[in-house]
Amino acid sequence: MRRAILAVLLVSFIALSAPKGTGLFAPLEEVYELIRYYYYRVEDVTEKDLLYGALKGMVEALGDPYSVFFAPEEYRKWQESVEGEYSGVGMEIAIKKGKVIVVTPFPGTPAYEAGIRTGDWIKAVDGNPTEGLSLEEVSAMIRGPEGTEVTLTLVSPEGVEREVTLVRARIKIQPVLAEYWEDKKIAYIRIIFFAERTPAEVGKALYTLPLEELNGIILDLRNNPGGLLASAVDVASFFVDEGVILYARGPLYGFRPYYSRGNAFPNVPLAVLVNEGTASGAEIVAGAIQDHGAGVLVGRKTFGKGVIQQIVREFPDGAALKLTTGEYLTPNKRRVHDVGLEPDIPVEADEEAEEDPDIKAAVEWILSQAAEPAAPVETVP
Prior knowledge:
The chain is α+β, with helices and mostly antiparallel strands. The chain is built from 10 helices and 19 strands.
């Protein structure tokens, strides 16, 4: 009886403390009571199951694939994925036009090795259709204990259907990969996703470069699904000396500008690689660089995910509520969501080419700039 009273109190809290039997949310309490009295297997359902079900249903009614109420275990797994370490197959997914679409398979993961591509539609998981399911529901179906199998029914962007069986593994993603190409005097920095540690790793890569001979930088944001907003702003600040990185608009923001943190790294020719898998935080960085003329975008039109999610409440039992709290615009106030960014130097994808066509175009552009070698940054003792 005490548990029932607690559940009623919690539902009443959701109803903004409306008096019992009155108000818009009164039917929630009534349905709860009817289930407790009439459902034939009521002993199989806890009050918390009913409460979570009601909360999930309320959030799902928003019709927003990126807003979700997490039960405690779901929230724990989501937090792991944000930091790039979890058990699964290693890919980022999104919902586009009602379909669960692969944004990117991460390098070195089962999804990547199996040839899963950006743009593949995940039609079913272990034979269960994904239509009508949330991102978190599909993610939960795909993830599982290390060493177990999962079968995905995929449809390519060209309409070819295939089945792929993957063995789940412990996924640990390195967010930043960096190289210096001595023969071309060009730095190559690939950002896989925007985790908390990403800005520090980008900074480490930049400030160890031989600035006296550097011709330019290739920043590879292809198949980058985004990540933390603050991380994206920090990374963009390495390349945008001052001014707005993005505008956020929504109930929490009004119309709020996020400014560059300031940058001591010298300006050199910068080519940013983008494609249809460049999304969210990666589009923030690409859009800021493009609008400020700090570099050029090379490749193909980006994904077009221009909305911001935020954990707006963590509950004492470990549950949490993630909501889409706003939309972002580029410094020139261009809309990104469902629109994407067009490259300055378009390049056709060619998986059969011996040399990566995007990198080839970026190298050619950087070398064409014939920029003076960057002077070392002076530091104050």
